[in-house]
Design goal:
GO terms for molecular function: RNA binding. Residues 124-199 form the PUA domain. Belongs to the MCTS1 family. This is Putative rna-binding protein. There is one protein chain. Helix content is 19%, strand content 30%. It has 209 residues and is α+β, with helices and mostly antiparallel strands. It has two domains: 2-114, no CATH class; 122-197, Sulfate adenylyltransferase, CATH 3.10.400. The strands form two sheets. A six-stranded mixed sheet has the order 2-1-3-4-5-6. The radius of gyration is 17 Å and the shape is elongated.
Length: 209
């Protein structure tokens, strides 16, 4: 059994930390102050499946054998609740591990995924799409079907790692708005929602004490 602390930060500044929807911006982490932002802390016990947090266990469905490496059973995990219906799973060191918006899918942070790049399917964009991905733009279908791009076959609503032509590490974490079959057929509009990208507010966010 793990003990989770539910943390409810108050005002985090004029910009939120995560571009989960097109109109969202990144959190200005320089304005985040733990003493000022947390309005209350409540201890809560959550029994995770096989001794792991339920949320993260569901987020690593295809590599359960590696979950002890990613989420040691003896660690103490907390759920950090923020404005805009955002939740973050952190470990005892306060490192951000997984996040979600409202009741959506739990997704790994890029820092965690860079350590363990095995539990998400990868979708590769061409070189021309890199600067748009890193500015927080959603991934358009042509960026996934043009020369230099490469797709792993997945269904609509799948959480994926966004790779890029000529790059070794993921640029972003996203969720498909169409199946990859439909992305190839339609070849226009948004193919993957950009949920978290390099150097956004979540990437810059300091460990939660």
């Amino acid at each position: 059994r793990h003990k989770f602390r539910v943390i409810l930060p108050s005002i985090l500044g004029t910009r939120y930390f995560l571009r989960l929807i097109a109109r969202s911006s990144s959190l200005d982490v320089h304005k985040f102050d733990e003493k000022e932002s947390i309005v209350r802390c409540a201890a809560a016990e959550v029994l995770g499946s096989e001794g792991h947090p339920q949320q993260a266990h569901r987020a690593v469905p295809t590599h359960r054998g590696h979950i002890d490496m990613v989420l040691p059973k003896k660690d103490q995990f907390r759920i950090v609740k923020c404005h805009d219906h955002i939740e973050i799973l952190v470990n005892s060191a306060g490192e951000q591990l997984f996040f979600r918006h409202r009741e959506g899918s739990w997704m790994p942070t890029l820092r965690l995924y860079h350590k363990y790049p095995f539990f998400l399917p990868m979708e590769q964009v061409d070189k021309g799409a890199i600067r748009f991905v890193l500015s927080g733009a959603n991934i358009m279908c042509p960026g996934l079907t043009s020369p230099g791009a490469c797709m792993t076959k997945v269904d609509k609503g799948t959480v994926v790692a966004i790779m890029a032509e000529g790059k070794n590490h993921a640029l972003a974490i996203g969720q498909t708005t169409l199946s990859t079959d439909d992305i190839a057929k339609v070849n226009k509009g948004v193919g993957v929602e950009n949920c978290h990208y390099l150097n956004d507010g979540l990437w810059q966010m300091k460990p939660v004490k």
